[in-house]
Each structure stands twice: as structure tokens, then as C-alpha cells.
Amino acid sequence: MSIQISSPSEGVPSHPNDSNERHKLRQMERDYEKISPFEFKNKLIHLAKGKDKKSTHILLNAGRGNPNWTAVTPRQAFFTLGHFAVTETQRVWSQGDLAGKPRKPGIAQRLRDFLRENSGLPGRDLLEKIVDDGTVARGFTPDDWVFELVDGLIGDNYPVPDRMLVHVERVVHDYLMQEMCDNNPPPGRFELFAVEGATAAMCYIFDSLTANFLLTSGDKVALMVPIFPPYVEIPQLDSYGFDVVEIRATAVDEEGNHTWQYPFTELDKLKDPAVKALFLVNPSNPPSVAMGNQTIRHLIQIVRNHNPNLIIISDDVYGTFVEHYRSLLADLPFNTLGVYSFSKYFGVTGWRLGVISLHETNVLDKLLRHLSSDRIAILQDRYESLSLHPEQLRFMDRLVADSRQVALNHTAGLSTPQQVQMALFAEFALLDMDNRYKRMTQEVCHRRKRLLFAGLGLQMVENPHDAAYYTEFDLAEWASHHFGQEFTRYLQAHYEPVDILFRLAEKFSIVLLNGGGFHGPQWSIRVSLANLEDEAYAKIGQAIHETLQEYVTEWSKAESPHPDVR
Hints:
This protein is an alpha/beta fold. It folds into 3 domains: 19-65 and 437-558, Alpha-Beta Complex (Aspartate Aminotransferase, domain 1); 72-157, Orthogonal Bundle (Histone, subunit A), CATH 1.10.20.110; 195-410, Aspartate Aminotransferase, domain 2 (3-Layer(aba) Sandwich). 46% of the residues lie in helices and 11% in strands. It is built from 21 helices and 14 strands. The strands form 4 sheets. It has a 7-stranded mixed sheet with strand order 4-10-9-8-7-5-6, with helices on both faces. It is globular, with a radius of gyration of 26 Å. The two termini are 24 Å apart. 46% of the residues are buried.
């Protein structure tokens, strides 16, 4: 393959012929392996766009997991509710561009009248069902329920309570019990904190754990890898400085294929009580595979018998893409702090809708009660503006306050229009008794994965735990399985793991991410199955297949006699 080194100003390599230029290329590729895969992606996009302008190839960026679908009906309900909400402000006071604030008395009946008189408005039927579901199924007082939705959507008041609006929390709680606990939640209730997506949840959780001495610099924490890179990068920051233990998903099936499960020998690292916290994404990112029942049962036994004070932070954003999914929230509620984002399932990344879940009885509150007297005194000073007895504040209340540097606790909370949209999404899913929407989104992902593997010319291994939101393709595994260890050693001796990504970007204008950046297998690549049209995945599979064949051809020329393909 003809490869040329690009100028340093372009910041991207291409493929040389002579040994000196190839050495320069490999060194440059090694440098790119050190940065975040999301930053590396920008370099690939730059290269792919340049190729895009010079050829018939269209840029196909499967490097980011932003879905290309949106949930229509709950958005329609939101905007129809907004129409009504504005008329409510004008009913109170209307002076041109100036209006009043909504008022509660009689508002539920006025909404019913509005919906009856405007039966053609989009989302009208869902909105009517949502109002009825709140009042009939959950026992909400009609005016209280409708007023919270209307006033929240208008956004004319600070969030009260700051942690989450009362009725919205009830609805979202029921949604999480359905989707994260497979409709079989543990006894008791979870307290929820509405936040600006899973990104904000991560920041708030890391900060509160350290601010409250539940984690301190040098503490041992575990990561289940592969994992979303910020979970790797944040613990390494100077402000945290944790000692990281990796729990690797190295299990394979009888044919040597990755199952992306965690061998018991890896999980047993958590038996060490010095491991104070465990961070995981489940289903994983990028393999996009949920933990199996055996894995979960073994983890439960480890926590109960060896490490009962383990703090578990479970990021469950992809859980809705797996049938009968159960988060660790369901099976280890005492130990688990849950993170969920609406972004992927409902196609709503721009709204920044997330929620942190913590059971009313939890290990974090237990650990706070057992802090040393000097640390309790420090925290009394930190939170004394919030309570006459700051030492009694629960972790969830501290988390809310810490999200606004404590001093601004009185203005904490996710914006109320965001919370209302969150509630409408949750109600939409709760009212979908036949799971029609869920089946559609799941089928989109699995159909695209089938198209990708068909383009690759490989048989797709079915996995009941597979979310298929991403897929991770291990080039070294493929090389060893199809051509043997000699070919694998040739690849590793002559190329860097990211070489295939540069080839795909340069020749086909295709952008993928390196699995090594997620602390997965070094020779793996991540393909997002969510953000491109179906036909793109057949093209990506074909391009990967052609690029893999180039490696085989190069090896064949370098070896004598020529290898037989097995």
C-alpha cells in the first residue's frame, strides 16, 4: 500500500515505503495512542475530510455514539404542553410580550378542556394519558401534578426541591425500576438527583466522594475495563491520584471469541478490602455487553463475604438496549450509586438529561457515620451553612450541595424544563406496555451490527447480553483465528494498533476509535452502531475487510512459502 508522511502541520501520518519513513510513522502512531481516543478522533476526521474532498467517498464517522434517532411522541407532548403553559401565563396577566406566572387552582381541568378543544395537536393523546397516569395510577392530586409540569416547563421558578421536583422524581423512579431492575426492584426506595447528563453525574460523584473523605489520594479503586475513557482519565488527575486496579473482561468462549465477561480470577481482585470503590459501565463501552448472571452472582458473593463496604458506581446508560436488563442497583442496592442518562435511548444528547440514584439505605451514609472525629469536624465546617446538625446530612444531600460548591446550594438543581422533558420521556416508556419503542431501538442497533459483519464477511455471534450499541472488533483475535500466530506476530512487529484507523480514514474516509484507548485489547477498534444510516455499516464492514486483506497480502509477500488461509 502506498503511504506518504504528511507534513507536521497536518498532524496526521500516512503510509511510507522505505524503512526510515515507516519508523517515523510508527513513532507518530505511538504518540497518538497516548491521547484520549476522542481527541485522536479529531485527527482522523481531519484526515478523512481531506480524503473526502478528493474522492467519491463520503465521510462516515462511526467514532461517536450520538444516536441518529429521536423519540418523536414525547417531544410532541412537550411542545403541546408548552403551548398550553403559555396560555396559562397569559390567562393570569397578558400585556403584549409580558405575561404572568401560572396559577394552580383548576389547572388540571383547564388542561383537559384545552386538549379536548385541540384534538389535532401532536402529542395530545400521550399528554392526556400522562395526566391520567399520574392521577389514577400514582394518586397524584390533579392540580399538583399538572401545575408541576406546567410551571416547570415555563421555568419561572428555581427547582424546588433542589434535588428533583416531587412528582417528576416519582415518575422517573418508576421508570428506572422498570428499565434498570427489570420490573423487580429491591425493597425500599431510591432517592434521585436530576443532573445535566451522565457527564455531570461523573463530575459530581468524584468530587463528593473525595470532599467527604470516602475516597482520598492514594486509595485503591477498581475499574471494569474496557470502559468509557474518562473513568480511566479522571482517577489519574492530581486532584484525585487514586491507585487504579483494572478488572479486565478477558473471558472467551470455546472458539476463542471474546465474550466480554469478567473471569472470576479478575473479579476476585475485589476481595481485597483495600479496594474502596468500583467504577463500571454496564453494558460496557465499547464492547456494549451487559454482565452475565454468573458474573453478577460472583460479584454479589464477593461484596457480601469479603468487601461489604465497597462503593460501586454503575453507569447504566445502555441498559435499555438489553432485554431484561438488571443493574447492580437491583442486586446490590446497599452498595451501588447508579448513573443513568436519557441521552442514548431517546436520542436526546443535547438536552443533557441524567439522574443519580441512591437507595435510602446505603453504604455511603454508613461510611460517613464512621469517619474519624477530625474528619467529621472538617465536614461540619464545610456544611454548617446547610443545617444545625451538618454531621447528620446524608450523602445524597451533600452531593446536591457539592454540585454548587455548597454555598450555592439554594440554587442547586437541574433546570425545571429539562426535568419536565425527562418526566415525559419516562412516562412515554412506562405507558408503552408492549415495548414497541424499545423493540424498535434495539432492532436498529442489531440490524446495523448484522450489516457490519456481513460486510466484514464474518459470522456474527449472537449474545443475549449484547446491547449492540457499539461493537469492538479485535484485529489480533481475528488474525490469530484466521491465519495463526505467525501472522499475528507479523502485524505486531510491523505495525502499531492504530495503523488500521489511519488506513480507513485515509483511503475510505471512515473514522473509528481505537479500543486500546478504552483500556480494551490494544489491537481492537470500536464501531458506533448508533449514529449512521444502515447502509453505512455495510460499507464500513467492506472497508475493514479490504484493509485487513491488505495486511494479509503484505504478509504473504514477506513470507515464503505463502500462507494458507484457514
